[in-house]
Amino acid sequence: MRILSCTEFEQQLREAIDSRAAVDEAAFCAHAADCDDCLRQWEEYQLLSVAIAEWNSDQPEIDLVDAVLAQHAFRGNEEHAIQPTPQAVEAENIATAPGLESRPRVFLQTVKTASDPIHSSRQRYSVLAVLASAALVLCLIATPFNPPSVETQLTGRSLTASHPAPNPKMADDEATGADVEALVRDAGSAYMGLARDAADVFTDTVAFIPEQTLPTANPTNALDSNADDSKQSIPWGQELEPIRRDVGQAIDFLFETISTEVEPTT
Amino acid sequence: MSELSGKQVIDDASLIRRCLDGDEVHMRLLVERFQGVVFGLCHRMLGHREDAEDVAQDVFLRVFRSLQKWDSSRPFKPWLLTIAANRCRTALSKRRRVPTPTELQIHPQAGAADLESLGLSEELQLALSELRDDYRMCFVLFHQQELSCAEVAEIMQCPEGTVKTWLHRTRRKLADSLIRRGVVTDADFELHRI
Questions:
Q1: Is B125's Cβ below 8 Å from some Cβ in A?
Q2: Complex ipTM over 0.90
């Protein structure tokens, strides 16, 4: 048996460790017996060989399968609910194709995500947001074309300011003279407001009735009726104008009378 | 390792192709096959079972997410262990910001009575937990996962020579630690007997 030098001993030991090759124990022990430094290395090698073998055998058991797959399915659903990937779209096409019911379950899960609660609620909220925006835009557009009311023309005050809602709490309070007077004033204001609204509605109705064309005096002759361009036209707005004027005067009279009695400040 | 009943053992490449198709049965099989490897690395690196379980689960989730990036011409296990090693590094860096107690604590005042309660495996793990992260990673990948120095170098993204240097340095430190703590094995008796 050839006796190793210290350099050979160290080199061969390193190579044995790096390549996990078996060592010539007799040769190593023979050299280690005469060299303290090499003996220390040899002892360390043997100590670690035993310790590593025991360390490797002392591995706890583990079962991560169910936990991993559950988390994978959960995160997959979460991601697809936020933004469907092209793979999911493709999978949907595949899954809906006839004769492919045995497609992978994970892909089918991604297809189902289109109807999951998170996705549906987001769609619903988006639709509501669009509708609310549209309504706001329509209000902004319609506001400049809203004609001034008769009440505004007459008094220059807004309708809401002229007939405040009666305070129901006041009726529950102990009836005093001032309270009764305030209650009567509120009732009068409310009545005036209603009267003005009725006048507005009537005025608008009369103003927006279009002029209608009445049939010809002799409808039996269709050819004549077609040829004759001089049709008799009666403006309905003009016929209703006297009624509107009478009712308007009555309401204006009532309005002026009540406003001077109940609202002396104006 | 429990493979699919009634089916022959499937190789890694075929298994991963099935996983890429979204086959849940084969995804389950993939986890079954490699959970010991991943959890072993995490457990040895982190020294804490619950932390290791969390990190191992995270590793598999990331593997499923990026499985299409795996180069089928190369072995799967080193690629998987690269992800696991990176997650362990991240977990260790988080632990430094928020210290978490490990299962095996170093007690400088531990006496001989305390040492008797620890086996050789626990002693080695205890000594390992005192080392730098890269030394520990190198040791675990080489001795526990039984990867070659070249594979360890690829996973740790460093030259192979560096891995060999770290490996021998780690072995030296571990042996010093074990001897300092009075761990004596049958190897000593065998040595003197020879």
A1: yes
A2: no
